[in-house]
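User: I want to check something. If I give you two sequences, will you return the structure for each one separately, not as a complex?

Assistant: Yes, each is folded on its own. Here is the first sequence with its structure:
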Amino acid sequence: MPAPKAPWEIHDHVTRENERIARERRERTGR
């Protein structure tokens, strides 16, 4: 069983996912 991530690792992952989603949404609406 993998060890639980540290809070800052979770936040970093969520931030990166949110940036990726926001970028995809921006590209989709920009056309």
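And separately, the second sequence with its own structure:
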Amino acid sequence: MHKDLFQVREKSPIEQKNINTDTWPVEERWSRWKQQLEVILPYSCELVLKPHHCQDYSGEFSGAFNTLTGDAFARAVFSGNSFHRSQHHLDDGYTDYTVVYILSGRGAIQRGSHFTPMNPGGIYLVDLGQTIIHDLIQKSHILLCRIPRAKIENFRKGPGDDRPLVIDSSSGPGLLLRNYLLLFPRASQQSSFVSPETLFNPVAELVIACLQESRGKAASEAETPQRLNLIFRRACQLIQKYCCDMDLSAQKLAMSLEISPSYLHRALRYHDASYNSLLRRARVEAASAQLVGAGRNTSMLQVALNCGFNGTSQFSRAFKEELGITASEFVKQTFTEKEDLSVLEEQI
């Protein structure tokens, strides 16, 4: 036979590694999980089970490691434990980043004296070239994606970049990253003719986009007096314009101003105001104008609903807080004054 009839398939650079505690005796699950995972992970670390963690341990880990490029993707479902990468662990020379997507579970990351909460749905960029501790205290389901340092290092040199980055996955590049991480396992399994590196590259590119987005937002939200004054004026204008919309919220207002809700609240506090107080005042002013224009016998409920209130009770409280009288007293007082003025004009 001709040799060309026999094709020698190149060995895949992807190594699959799996752990499942279900087949182990219950009393050995934690110790064997700790031992095997510390060996599988491409860096030195220590896993610790503390009293606040579930002692009846269970865990499942599956990972794909590209031995040529350093990229890796893993999924882990486990009872929760502490992860320590201390100073002596850094002697291994490992300096890559890991994207951590918390599908379920809760905990925190500690870098020096700085703590970053980890919540369900959160995506975090963690630098494993530094000392770090993270602790997941509940049954957790996480996705992990390793990114070689060289791919993103040039974009990670700003102030505060020694801390884990919290990626906003609700919009923009963070939303794309979230969806890509969710779809990556299925896409990689169904791709027969695409190199693994091609599939991993978009993760790094999306992380770079998230870094740029985060830095851009930080720059645009610099708390200078001029910037805070501008945001306050624009917020007041929009609240005045849309105050009667029942769906108006601080989050929607911040989106219209292209800032974060926290920055909006800081700008309002700078002027000793709050979103709720400005909205209440604008709605009361709008309601006052409607009451005067509609006449003495107008429906209080209809005016309340027209001006964004959810009923007459909230309507009356807001009136009392802003004007010192209820809406009914305002109508009575307004039309009594009008009648007195009419009588006086007739006498003249």
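Because they were folded independently, the notes below concern the second chain alone. The domain at 277-347 is CATH 1.10.10.60 (Arc Repressor Mutant, subunit A). Residues 280 and 318 are 6 Å apart (CA to CA).
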